[in-house]
Amino acid sequence: MKLLKPLFDNNRRWADRIVKEDPQFFEQLAIQQHPEYLWIGCSDSRVPSNQIIDLMPGEVFVHRNIANMVMHSDINCLSVLQYAVEVLKVKHIMVVGHYGCGGVKAAMGSDRLGLIDNWLHPIRSLYKAQKSALSSLDESAQFDRLCELNVIEQVGNVTATTIVQDAWHRGQELAIHGWIYSIENGLLSDLDVTVNKDDHSTEDE
Fold it and tell me: CA nearest 36: which of 154, 177, 148?
């Protein structure tokens, strides 16, 4: 406990600062959360969701894992997605990757890393499928592009879930976005792969 005292000190200073700015903030926050956004991002500590888009607690529902993956066997991710869509009624789902992603980098290599190899298998498969298209790029550019392609792939995975398909079938307003973040300059880029109910079939796939 003593070793982590600086974190508790930070917390108290932060809470005091928030109350000075808005005395009713925590009272209102405790009543109910009404986020319009679900952020599906990487666990990397350099990519803090709320800070990047400068939103306060309660404004973004968040799911993070290594390499911002969305897999149909991941009950954790699917549970977050279902709660966000069906209970919180979020209007936007942002899949957010970042350049320099360690998970993507590991998937490009051939080293055996242990349990995480199973998690990264879909990215390895994506890399193999795109190897010909990436061959004209140098190693750094290939890495950057694979980070982008992984985001695009995960947008497709979100879109294909029954959770999203059923929401669109109900006429729910919901859009899926693919973004990428640069740790080097702190800026987000839109990968222009936004999908909503107006331009995607809601028929069973």
Answer: 177
pTM score, whole prediction: 0.90
Q: Are 170 and 177 in contact (CB under 8 A)?
A: no
- d(CA 105, CA 198) in angstroms, rounded, equals 35
Q: Is 101 a catalytic residue?
A: yes
| 91 secondary structure, DSSP code | S
The DSSP result for 49-87, as a single string, is: HHHHTT--TTSEEEEEETT----TT-HHHHHHHHIIIII
44 is catalytic: yes
Concerning whether 9 is annotated as a catalytic residue, the answer is: no
In tens, the pLDDT along 137-179 reads 999 999 999 999 999 999 999 999 999 999 999 999 999 999 9
